[in-house]
Amino acid sequence: MSDIIQLLPDHVANQIAAGEVVQRPASIVKELLENAIDADASKIELIIRDAGKNLIQVVDDGKGMSETDARLAFERHATSKIRGTEDIFKISTKGFRGEALASIAAVSQVELKTKQRDSALGTNIYIEGGVFQFQDPAQTAEGSNFLVKNLFYNVPARRKFLKNNNIEFRHVIDEFQRVALAHENLEFSMFHDDEPVFRLRKGSQMQRIVDIFGRKLQPQLIPIKEDILWCRLHGFVAKPEGAKKTRGEQFLFVNGRYFKSPYFNKAVQEAFEGLLLPGYIPTFFLFLELDPEKIDVNIHPQKTEVKFEDEHLIFALLRSTIKRSLGIYNVAPSLDFERDPQLDEIMQKTFPSKGNNGGSFKMPEIIVDKDYNPFLEEREVKKVEIQNLAEMYHQNIAAEPSKINLFEEEDFDEDLMRLPNGYWLFNKGDRTLMLDLGRMHRLVVSENNKSTSKKGSTNSHALLFSLEYHMNEIEKNKYRSIKKYLPELGFETSIAHENVLRIDAVPEGLKETQVMKFLENLFEILEYKTEEEFMQFYQNQWNKMQSKSRFDFIYKADAEQLIKDFTALGFPEFLPNGKRCFYEVPFNDIKNKF
Ligand SMILES: Nc1ncnc2c1ncn2[C@@H]1O[C@H](COP(=O)(O)OP(=O)(O)O)[C@@H](O)[C@H]1O
Ligand SMILES: [Mg+2]
């Protein structure tokens, strides 16, 4: 019988192995950006086309490669970053497996131009489907310039598996942001289909966060900082107002590497306990620096998990430091400047032999100027605002006493009466109904808007003073994609300078105070595929903006007017989403209680 086992040619083996590393354009972006950082670049440029499906180019000004290294770099297990197994336990570079370039080259067409800092001439190498094509000396800038073209051109099944450009683009942005956030000392830029997406100058960590996520975030950020002997924690959390309902801006890094950890997320969530409405997730950018020997990143190339030796201790460190900072910055109701006893307790348990005060741990000294309060000014303004509101309210009561039926006995009306919690009681024929005027109002608004939007474009209301909205880079892209729809809706907008959107007119009915929030909501959604999709979302936002909550109904006249409008709609019991507008008081059941 003849032998049938064969060794696979390298390029076939690589293609199979590539699946581990290269799932989508974003995986390549991550590997190339990380290689540039490992090569000590100070300026990194990412250029993609078709969400990276047809081109991913990364240009760095790092140390470059020699002619031989450029050729070797594409071999599997070719790395300059480790020599032996012992090195795996103290990795300080991003990569170390030496398989990224081999995998990328196996499933695309790669060109690399590179030159070392002290060489006169560089080299240009071309590899297709993992098969070496040619290498020539070349004039090129110092550093490396990788061009990865036509991803999966030779594996059509996997090419088909890629998602649409919007989704792949989002993944690329995610990877780019993760890398850029952790390296605020490097300059980054990103272009998609020739349009700039990000331009990030070197700066502070705060600067980097704000450059990526927008200036609006800046006043929200609270610094977090704590050093214990073997672990340094720093970064920012956003005040509770900055929390979101969707997962989005939660970033954890260890030694400059992004990672995911539901366990540590929980520590942050716990620090915010009592400060967030249910379902809200805090925004945070947190960086841990610790001895590489205390963590294990060697899990899986695509997995963003990291194993920690002292997980529980880090949990306590996160929880207590954030809690304390929220206290110092006057966000948490009780000012608790002390260290969380849980942290000390855990240190005790983890290292019982180290004595009473955690032994070798440096107990952090927290120096707090208790008189310093960065938000004092803001609070003073708020106080004045509240006083003004209270005055206005009293003036209103004095001016229109007949309209108020909150407190005045003689105003009591049998048919319509306001109850605690914003509900109203209403006698309708022989039934008594408890009304949620907020929900009823929502229905009236959406019905009204349905009939007006059929009439065509909305009236525009010119603003006396134009407003300025500071966009982040993502919002800028979104603005580009929706600006064509805005004029017929009544908006007059233009780009004032680089990231500033100028608003000169808004649709009639949109209050000036609502404009910013409204735009922010419009920009929130990922991508509008069709005009229809945008208009529908717009209409929803518009209805929401115009709707009042049940707490807004204080005056009986307003309640009466709403009930009239609602009656015209047939007094429906439910909203289209199934929520109840009113509830019939079950008098028969109540009678039995007496
Ligand atoms: N942008 C770059 N500049 C300089 N050298 C690079 C660059 N990218 C890759 N290399 C070299 O190629 C080698 C292989 O890269 P890669 O396949 O990503 O493996 P790893 O990063 O795990 O070492 C690296 O170890 C490094 O020596
Ligand atoms: Mg690498």
From TrEMBL:
Cross-referenced SUPFAM superfamilies: ATPase domain of HSP90 chaperone/DNA topoisomerase II/histidine kinase, DNA mismatch repair protein MutL, Ribosomal protein S5 domain 2-like
GO cellular component terms, A-Z: mismatch repair complex
Keywords (A to Z) from UniProt: DNA damage, DNA repair
One BP annotation, GO: mismatch repair
Keyword DNA repair: yes
A single GO molecular function term of this UniProt record: ATP hydrolysis activity
One Pfam family, short name: HATPase_c_3
Protein's job: This protein is involved in the repair of mismatches in DNA. It is required for dam-dependent methyl-directed DNA mismatch repair. May act as a 'molecular matchmaker', a protein that promotes the formation of a stable complex between two or more DNA-binding proteins in an ATP-dependent manner without itself being part of a final effector complex.
Family to which this protein belongs: Belongs to the DNA mismatch repair MutL/HexB family.
Protein name: DNA mismatch repair protein MutL
Underlying gene: mutL
